[in-house]
Every structure is written in C-alpha cells, then in structure tokens.
Amino acid sequence: MTAAAWTMLAITWTIVAGITLRLFLLVLRTPVRPDGDDER
Amino acid sequence: MTGNAREAWGTRVGLVLAMAGNAVGLGNFLRFPAQAAQNGGGAFLIPYLVSFVLMGIPLLWVEWAIGRHGGGFGHHSAPGMLDRLGPQRWLKYIGVFGLFTNLTVAAYYTYIESWTLAYVYHSLVGTFHHVQPTTFFPEYLGVHNSIFALPGEALFFFCITLTLNVFILSRGLAKGIELAAKIGMPLLLLFAAVLAVRGLLLGPGDPGVVESPLAGLNFIWNPNVSGLTNPSTWLAAAGQVFFTLSVGMGSAHCYASYVKHKQDIALNAASAGWMNEFVEVILGGSILIPIATAYLGLSAVQSATAGGSGFGLGFLTLPTLFNNWGWLAPVAGAFWFGLLFFAGITSSLAMGQPILAFLEDEFRVPRSKAAVAFGAGALALGFVCVWLYPGGSFDEFDFWTGTFSLVVFALAEAFIFAWIFGMERGWEEITRGADIRVPPIFRFVIKFVTPVFIVVVFVGALFQPTGGSWLDAFGSLFAGHGWPFAPESVVGRVFHLGDAAYTWRDSAGNLTRAFVQDATRLLLLLVFLGFGGLVWLAWKKKRKEGVA
Fold it and tell me: Is some CB atom of chain A closer than 8 A to the CB atom of B174?
C-alpha cells in the first residue's frame, strides 16, 4: 500500500471510529429523560 | 388514543441499534467498496464525508424530528406525520411515498435477503465445493431463455424469509424489532470483524493467494486527487451517502415516532448514522475487495467492480474463494452471507413497521393482522419480482421504488420541514431534549444546503449521461449534439433508451422485456394510487368521526 493510501485510511478510520465510539458511549451513559405524556 | 399508542422502545440502546440496523444494508458491504474504488479511491472519502455531514446527518435529524412530532399526535406513519406539519391538505398525500416505498422495496429486498439465507445454507452444506456460484445463481433464480421464472427453491427461501419478518413484526417493537436488532447487529459486527481480520492476514503462504490483500485495500484507499474536481465523483459520493442511510423511506420517521415528546433525538440520530458509517467505511471496505484481490489479482477485481457494484463479487465469486480456507470455508461462507442476512433483515423490519403502524393507527387493525397484511402484500408484489425476474421486473422495482421514490420523498420532506413547518419550529423539534449540542450552523444547513444536495442527487439521477462523464456531456450539449442520456438515467428509462427496438412483442410474437418493464411500472403506479386511496379513506373516516 502506498503512503498516501495508508494516510487516507488512518485519518478516515480514526475520524469515523472515534466519532462513532464517542456518540455510542454517550448514548450508553446518558439516562433517558422521563416523559409520562407522549400523546398530545 | 390510537391502536398502538402503548407501543414503545424497551431501551435507548435498542432504539439506536434498530435505527442503525435500518440504515445498515447489503450496500454497506457490496456497493460502498466498489463505489469508493471506482471514484477516486481515498479521495472519494472527502466528498463522501462532506455529503454525510451536510446532507446525511441533517436529513436524519429532519426525519427523526418529523417522526417524533407526528408520534406526539398518535401518528406513526408518514401520511399522518406530514399532515401535522402544516395546514395544507395535500401534505398527507406526500406521505403516501412513505407507505408505497416501504412495501414495494420490502417486496424485492426480502427476496435478496432470502438469497443470503439460501447461501448460508449452501455454504454450510458445502454446495460451493462442487458447484460454481456462476452456475448455481442463475439456476437458483430460474433464469433460462424466457422472461418468466418459477424457481422452487428461491420461492421456498423467500417464503421463509417473509414469514420470519412477519413473525418478528407481530411481536411488537420491544419484543420483536428491538430484540432482532440487539441480536443481529452485534453478530453482524462480529462476523464482519472475523472475515476482515482473516482476509487481511492472507499471505503468500496461504493456498491460492496470488496477491497481497493490501493491494485491494490500496485500490480502495489510494487517493486519486484529480477525482475531486470531477462532478461525477461528488455525485457518486452524495448518492452513496443518501442510499446508505435509508433516508427518504418513512422508516426512520416511524421508529422515531415512538420516542417521547421530551426525549432526545439529536444524539440518537447522530449515533445511529455514524454507526452506519463505521460498518460501511471500516468493515465494508475491508472484506470484499481485499479478499477477492488476494485470490483473483487486482486487475480482475478492477474489472469486476467497474460498474460501481460489488454484487457479482459478493454472490458469484466469494463463495468459491472461501474454499481456499480449508475447514473454515463453510463457516466463512455462513459468516459472509449471515452478516448480509442480518444487514438485510434489520432493514426489512424497518420497512414493515410503517405499514403496520398505518393499518393500526388509521384503520384500527390489530398488530398481528397488520403484520400478516404486510406479509401478504410483500409476497404478492415479491412474487412478481420472482416470476418476472428474467424479464427485468426486479430491476424496475429497484429503480423506481428503491432509488427514484426515495429521492423524491426526501426532497419533498426537506422542503416541507424547512419551509412549511418552518425552521423556527423545526429547530425547536430537533433540539428539544437533546443530549448533545447541535451546532447552530445546521439551522442554515437544513434550510438551504441539504435541499440543494438532494436536488443535485435528483438531477444527477434524472440526467445521468452516458459513460457517467458530466464534462463530456456538457461538451456534447454545447457542440450541438444534444444531451447523451444514459439508458439507466430516469429519462433514459422512461423512454427505454437502452432498447434497440422498443416493442412489446418480438417478431415471433413473444412478450419482450420492454413489456415486462412497462407492466411493472403500471403495477407500481397502481400500488401508489391504492395507498393514496387508503389515505383518502382514512381521512374521510377521521372527518366523519370529527378527529381530522
């Protein structure tokens, strides 16, 4: 693999994996807000 | 109260996994790597991620917001949701797309899903040790010298797959769809990770290996920077983002409609969207092309993916290549087609739920009966795809329902949300209860940039030029030779530009592909009008009851 290909792969994987993991961990850690009445 | 007012997601993770499962489909593994490789390699990822941020994520927020807003009024399908976005009476008829698309796409999509199930079985029993998939596949589909096909085994697996979908849907949100996503998504990730690691570790010492799998990875990731100035690359990237997220269907709206009034949608939508990107960019790009390159060599893979699809490699080539893996071959085949099956079923369930919700909400049909009605509808339409597969009916379904309708509906909903519902209320809807800070710039993006992106995708599909080169097409236009419409463009398809001689019967009096194509279009139009009639009936009933 060329250096340019490795660079693109490393940058893209880091961005995608980093954001995905960060957001999913936030989903896991944030408790759901109580909302008793969902029908308006 | 409505028929399914007590339906709710069991857990937040379940909702995010179900929504990610809705987005993750066969295209993540078969279409993305081929599209990336053919459109600038690593450089493709730049317009791809730009499109994701400026069109994909905003559109997900819009769909979740429309869904939760409509759900608050007891509507869990698109007609009712759109009806609540403004006083215009025609809005609910735009929502017909959100029913039509789901049923018609489910019809042919569950057929593809059933192929993956059949391939899991045939991988496990070792069929591909003695039968070439290139022989097996046409035989399986019943493709002979006719426009008709009645393949017994394919119909059997199709019925099994549909029955499984109906069974899961009939169990409800938490005990059905959510449970399926909680089982299917982790297994999909596990299967994909195992195949990616094994594939990338193939070396010269392994039997049958002719080239390093890294040459395949290089094919996908080596940046061809000149592609960035080519409009075709941007169009391909925007199209890939659009279709990978399953937006413009009405299914994301439906899932989001079960989220309560003050609960987050901003983080949930972003998390599900990025999860789809993880599966597509990291796992989807690391299996098919690297493994195929290792055994076939790069030039064979380049020509196999020249059309921007990895479907042939995935179904016709990979099963044979796994034979080189010794005792692992049946497991590898089962993993590959198993992950495609999980990717498929988590999407087809999302297509079924809006139909069930419409029947439950608007006609008080019990869930189990609504699930059976969905299954019967998908079976009837799917049978047309099976029976007329060689005549091109399947392709017509794929194009008009799985491509064209999605873009039309997404375009309409983006404009309705930003310009009729209004960005003031729209922004409040997106950010209410948000567990992340949505950057204010997205208010501008949703109002102006996202609709422009969808218009570009729409115009791209409408006027796609022959050979895919827009620069050459404009050159032809300005030279006075006219616009070279590709046969696969919307205009090209409407006017059958791909047919040498357009006729419904050939010289021997037999029906032609053109007949099947036109008949399929008429059928789809009737289905659309049928859903339109149901919406009209439902609202007539509401007016009578004084609830419209």
Answer: no
CATH code, domain carrying B16? 1.20.1740
pLDDT in tens, B404-432: 999 999 999 999 999 999 999 999 999 99
**8 Å CB contact of A13 and B275:** no
Cβ <8 Å between A9 and B217: yes
In a domain, B335, yes or no: yes
The CA distance from B433 to the nearest CA of chain A, in Å, is 8
Residue with tokens 């050159």: B475
| Average confidence (pLDDT) over A14-18 | 98
Contact B383, B394 (CB under 8 A): no
C-alpha–C-alpha distance, residues B173 and A6, integer Å:
42
Tell me the ipTM for this assembly.
0.93
Here the tokens at position B511 are 């029906």
d(CA B375, CA B369): 10
Residue B511 is given by DSSP the state B
Please report whether residue B481 resides in a domain: no
Q: Which residues contact B475 (CB under 8 A, 6 or more apart)?
A: none
Q: What angle do CA B303, B307, B310 make, to 5 degrees?
A: 80
Does a structural domain hold residue B1? no
Model pLDDT for residues B420-464, shown as the tens digit of each residue = 999 999 999 999 999 999 999 999 999 999 999 999 989 988 999
Contact (Cβ atoms closer than 8 angstroms) between residue A11 and residue B262: no
Residue B349 lies in a domain: yes
Split into its structural domains, chain B has a count of 1
Token match 């799985």: residue? Answer: B402
- Residue contact A17–B74, C-beta within 8 A: no
Q: For B275-310, how does the pLDDT look when each residue is reduced to its tens digit (9 = 90+)?
A: 999 999 999 999 999 999 999 999 999 999 988 889
B10 touches chain A (CB under 8 A): no
Residue B351 structural domain: 12-463+499-545
Chain A CA closest to residue B15: A27
